[in-house]
Design a protein that fits this description.
Length: about 350
């Protein structure tokens, strides 16, 4: 244990002298306890203290007025006089101002916020009211209105319960964020792109303070939800289906892919739009639900680049007798090829 190094010299030239002194004294007390110096005579302890404290603090020691001549060789008296010199008299009003104005900043973990409040409260002389005022500061300092509402709803809220509620909310939010950002793997990842129409509608949705669609008002939180109007995950009041017409039933505020109404189909297999104008569709395969909104919507399939080529999700197919390589997508509701590929394969779409 004799190899334990002493604390660094007390810094009186940079930073807050009072904070530097508190931290240095704490390390010094650990040092003399760990090395067994605390059991030695007072004169030896005083010599060790004045040796490891540094030149700047030694000059302060030499200017101290001692109550008794022997006090300057007693370590407790030395520490008492130095503390009085390095720590000014507390301004209790200012210390409490710092405590009561410390709000939880964005990015602060609840443990970090509580620990800082505890440090600030040490200089406030709250005494028996310490835990109660600390609990109140946590409730008032949190910016999340949902968590704050939950804390205020508990008439028997204690400091421990307040911390537990905040930790639970923080953990839940992190898990939701992780689930939202989790990809599908390093190969064959499918990312859905809403396309130009979806982006424009989403931008209009972000510009609204409130949505008139009751579906969007079920939950008003800062977390993504599974929307019943468009079938996508997005923030509340940001639904791209708002004010849009379903091409299956001509209803408002939802997409055709989640529409439960019967499709509005004219004679000849033509799909009616809201403006009663028919849109003719060229399809590769025949489907029972030709009126789905995929008639006007096409997703985008992106595969991440890898060092080795894999054909795990590819299969050879024939399109009108022409052999081609296709990528499998078990979640797709229609088979789609580009016009350029159709021309290259000499495929002529068949009208239905």
């Amino acid at each position: 244990m004799q190899n334990i190094p002493p604390p660094n010299l007390l810094n009186l030239r940079e930073g807050c002298v009072a904070d530097n002194w508190k931290r240095w004294r704490q390390r010094y007390e650990f040092f003399i306890t760990a090395t067994g110096q605390s059991t030695k005579p007072e004169g030896v302890q005083a010599a060790i203290l004045l040796t490891v404290i540094g030149e700047d603090a030694l000059e302060v020691y030499n200017t101290v007025n001692w109550d008794a001549e022997g006090d300057k060789l007693k370590p407790d008296k030395i520490l008492e006089k130095l503390e009085a010199a390095f720590i000014p008299k507390k301004n209790l009003t200012y210390e409490r101002y710092r405590f009561f104005t410390r709000d939880r900043k964005e990015g602060d973990k609840i443990d970090q916020y509580v620990n800082e409040l505890k440090q600030l409260s040490k200089s406030c002389a709250f005494e028996q009211l310490h835990d109660s005022l600390l609990k109140d500061r946590i409730v008032c300092g949190i910016a999340d209105e949902r968590v704050q509402e939950k804390l205020l709803a508990d008439a028997d809220l204690t400091l421990e319960k307040a911390i537990d509620i905040c930790k639970s909310s923080e953990c839940t939010r992190e898990r939701i964020q992780e689930m939202t950002n989790t990809g599908l793997g390093s190969v064959n990842v499918v990312n859905r792109d809403q396309g130009r129409r979806g982006q424009d509608n989403s931008m209009r949705g972000r510009g609204r303070a409130r949505s008139a669609d009751p579906r969007d008002q079920e939950t008003r939180s800062s977390e993504p939800i599974q929307c019943k109007s468009c079938g996508l995950m997005h923030l509340p009041c940001r639904c791209p289906a708002y004010n849009q017409t379903c091409y299956k039933c001509n209803g408002l505020h939802h997409f055709a892919k989640i529409c439960r109404n019967r499709p509005a189909v004219a004679d000849g297999g033509e799909v009616k739009s809201a403006s009663n104008k028919s849109k003719h569709v060229d399809v590769v395969g025949q489907y029972d639900s030709v009126a789905e909104d995929e008639v006007l919507f096409c997703g985008v399939v992106n595969a991440e680049q890898t060092t080795e080529r894999t054909n795990q999700w590819h299969v050879n197919v024939r399109l009108n007798g022409v052999k081609a390589n296709a990528k499998l997508d078990m979640g797709a509701q229609a088979n789609v090829i580009s016009i350029n590929m159709a021309n290259k394969l000499k495929v002529k779409p068949e009208s239905t």
